[in-house]
Task: structure prediction
Amino acid sequence: MDRKMKSRAPANHSGTDSGKHSGDQSGTNAGTPHVAGGDLLRDVRRPTPQDFDIRIAADGRWYHEGGEITRPALVRLFASVLQREPDGTYWLVTPVERGRIDVDDVPFIMIAADIKGDGTDQVIRLRSNVADEIVLGPDHQLVMRRPPDGDDLRPYVMIRPGLEGRIARPVFYELAALGVEGPDGRIGVWSAGTFHCLDGDTA
Result:
């Protein structure tokens, strides 16, 4: 089988997150970071140089000083310099600045799947809301666990070292429709020669 990649959720949405924040920070005059030359991130510096007023909400939307960053190119730029420390803190790191940001759950949402092949030869490619692409396999295992709010089990996958993406609900349903019984009797999907369980806590 060969299924084309389809967008399952918008990379960014207008509006605010759960009514907690307001204001549109989509333009540089509204307080969003400059991206040209040495001005990268200069506008988001707080009195403490290592603390940026940037937050990634649980739905993958980025906020600066309470207002949503609505420019996809700017979100992708910030995502490209995002790192996670061993203590779990998240940082935007450039050659000239390094600042901590807040992440409610994980920084990325996997919004689309491209599925090729069948059975153990199946390959599942996932795309994130910031255009990262990975293939489920030995280096990118699907993990089921509870998010910080302690809700139901949700599917996650490692995108880059220390940086995970949560698989959006429509994409998970697409994977679940392909579910088969694995070697240990659990339900999951094959991709790149690796079996990924979908039916319980695998963290």
